[in-house]
Amino acid sequence: MAHIFSVASAKGGTAKTTTSVNLGVALAEQGLRILLIDNDSERHLSNSLGIPAKNKYTIASLMSAVLNDMEIDDLLEKSIVEAGRLHCIPSSPALAGMAAQLTVRQNAASMFDAPAGVRSEFVLKVITDMVNDRYDYIIIDCGRSLDLLTINALAASSEVIIPVQAHYLPEEGLGSFLETVKKIKMNLNPNLEVGGILLTMYQGSTNLCRSVQQDIRTRFGETYRVFHQPISHSIRVAEAPAFKRSIFEHDPSNPAAQGYREMAREVLAHAQT
Questions:
Q1: Residues of the domain holding 258
Q2: CB of 268 closer than 8 Å to CB of 30
């Protein structure tokens, strides 16, 4: 059975997609079978892997089929794309419409009798359940909103990894997001755990970043795992998706590459405990 991670936060710009891709590649380097799922209508992960937008077999088409109680075996096989060492189920702009459809369905269930079929919060879980014996790790890249797409990801996951920029304002939103994770664990997914808090865009030479790192360890470190090595800020990390590469291909000696390899080692060590 696969370990299923959501990479999620309550804010945009925290390096969720960068973390999803580079953690996936770092784990694949160990010979593990990795599936990435692009759960964001903006397609950042799909674009990073060079998967064209015209691809008609996407996570949106799969979720639509589940909602309409259709057989999805053949569609699922067509949706899985090889991207180097990784497999990926890409996204499309149609996923934004799927988020709205899930909301309508959820509202209808609360006001009237629940519609037949899968609940709005568990559509993605139907899909991951069908492939979780084929992979060692499934990594779900979430969007910037805490909408029903992100809730679907958390409901399907065993763990959530939370990237946080090493700045004060993003840090302040961490507590409220962790409370949301607790509610989802209580009401939707009792197996959900916090896989770790990851500091990103870290500049060790600045007092601000060091202060934020210390504060997060003090406030959250006794309850949640905080990854040992933060991900260093580097323009090379921002460049890599434009070349459809991970940081390991684009600049393998970059400190951020070392950070993601260290993160992968921590993930693997935690899985063995």
A1: 3-271
A2: yes
